[in-house]
Design brief:
single chain, about 400 residues, TIM Barrel, 16 helices, 10 strands, about 15% strand, globular, disordered N terminus, binds (3S,4R)-3-hydroxy-2-oxopiperidin-4-yl beta-D-xylopyranoside, GH, polysaccharide degradation, Beta-xylanase, signal
Length: about 400
């Protein structure tokens, strides 16, 4: 009896403390929510907050802060590069799982879920594959076998360790491509036809029945991008609907969320409506690669606050739009940023003419920007009735 009473009191104290490592809250000293991490605040809504991880930065012993922030702030991680084909299978039939396994081990130690990125994509393919196809030594039939083998081997290797797989990435063209009418683009569609998408999901499901299987793309944050006949979000919606009609095991849509402050972008209401429409098909959603870049004008580079402040504000507002929209739909399971510090961001390397940068939530010295604090505020100042806990997705058979 005595012991039981003690246990009950202990449980109450723990519950009041709320978060591991935080001092117990009391009426006179409530927990200050702004001192909690993104991952702790996300858990108020069962929402996983993630980041892409650069394995070189994670391993850098001279920079322990990177590792410390990945573990403190995030409840899910994505390999920025080491699960891509060129890294996993640099030579035909020879797999290099080492770097990806390191991330899986890190995530396990830190109680984080892993998003698998990526099984099928037209970029970062090994040259044995692309050259073999272009010089005709790999036939179309053989290419299909190669794809099935790769998916099966990779998904089986990580079986039970991946929460969400990006099965197919960026399969749809953009209005600025030729032809401008939206179509299935890139290496796989050109060589195998669009049927590879359904195949990929079926092969992935056969190799791991429990991982959630996602289609992932950019510029699909909201419906209504310009010409309604050329709306990429609508195209992806129609694709998902057709896949479900054909009983293809797709569980979710990943919206990458690569935005720029120089564009018009969307508001929370529009983005929430898109997520709800995908949920209406019975799909989960996730923001998978959020970053909001800005043009690095001469003024920005010279430190002119008149130019820097509006960029910081616009960047924060866009991070917030996507996060609020995700909070608004209980089928939106995770919100992942594509790197969390300007010290390690793909943006300056990829968008160099004109130069772009300032895309992440912390600066090069790991100082939080207002985007970081706005994300925290969104997670703190939201809840029922309009923000409900996440509804877990069951893998479709
Ligand atoms: C990027 C990485 O961040 C870079 O380091 C790499 O050089 C190129 O790829 N969409 C995706 C991601 O799905 O895999 C890309 O990642 C960014 C765009």
């Amino acid at each position: 009896m005595q012991l039981k009473r003690w246990l009950t009191v202990g449980a109450v104290v723990l519950a009041a403390g709320g978060v591991a490592g935080a001092a117990p809250a009391t009426a006179s000293h409530p927990v200050d929510p702004s001192q909690q991490s993104l991952r702790q605040l996300g858990m108020r809504h069962d929402l996983y907050i993630g980041t892409a991880v650069d394995m070189a930065a994670l391993a850098d012993t001279a920079d322990p802060q990177y590792r410390e922030i990945v573990s403190r702030e995030f409840s899910t991680v994505t390999a920025e590069n080491v699960m891509k084909w060129e890294t996993l299978e640099p030579t035909r039939g020879t797999y290099n799982f080492g770097p990806a396994d390191e991330l899986i081990a890190f995530a396990k130690r830190n109680n984080q879920k892993v998003r698998g990125h990526v099984l099928v994509w037209q970029n970062q393919l090994p040259s044995w594959l692309t050259t073999g196809v272009s010089n005709g030594t790999i036939s179309k039939d053989e290419l299909r076998d190669i794809l099935r083998n790769h998916i099966t081997t990779v998904v089986k290797h990580f079986k039970g360790k991946i929460w969400q797989w990006d099965v197919v990435n960026e399969a749809v063209s953009d209005p600025w491509d030729t032809p401008s009418t939206l179509h299935y683009k890139g290496f796989w569609a050109q060589n195998l036809g669009p049927g590879y998408i359904a195949d990929a999901f079926r092969w992935a499901r056969a190799a791991d029945p429990k991982a959630l299987l996602f289609y992932n793309d950019y510029n699909i944050e909201a419906f209504g991008s310009g010409d309604p006949a050329n709306d990429k979000t609508q195209f992806v919606y129609d694709m998902a609907k057709a896949l479900l009609r054909d009983r293809v095991p797709i569980d979710g849509i990943g919206s990458q969320g690569h935005l720029g402050t120089q564009y018009g972008n969307y508001d929370t209401i529009q983005v929430a409506a898109a997520l709800k429409k995908f949920a209406g098909l019975g799909l989960a959603t996730a923001f998978t690669e959020v970053d909001v870049r800005s043009q690095m004008t001469a003024g920005v580079q010279a430190g002119d606050s008149n130019e820097i402040n509006p960029r910081l504000q616009a960047s924060a507002a866009n991070y917030s739009v996507l996060l609020q929209a995700c909070l608004a739909d209980p089928h939106c399971l995770s919100y992942t940023v594509w790197g969390f510090t300007d010290k390690h961001s793909w943006v300056p390397g990829w968008f160099s003419n004109p130069p772009e940068g300032m895309a992440t939530i912390m600066d090069e010295n790991y100082q939080p920007k207002r985007a970081y604090n706005l994300m925290k505020a969104d997670l703190i100042h939201s809840g029922p009735p309009y923000v409900q806990p996440r509804i877990p997705q069951k893998p479709r058979r």
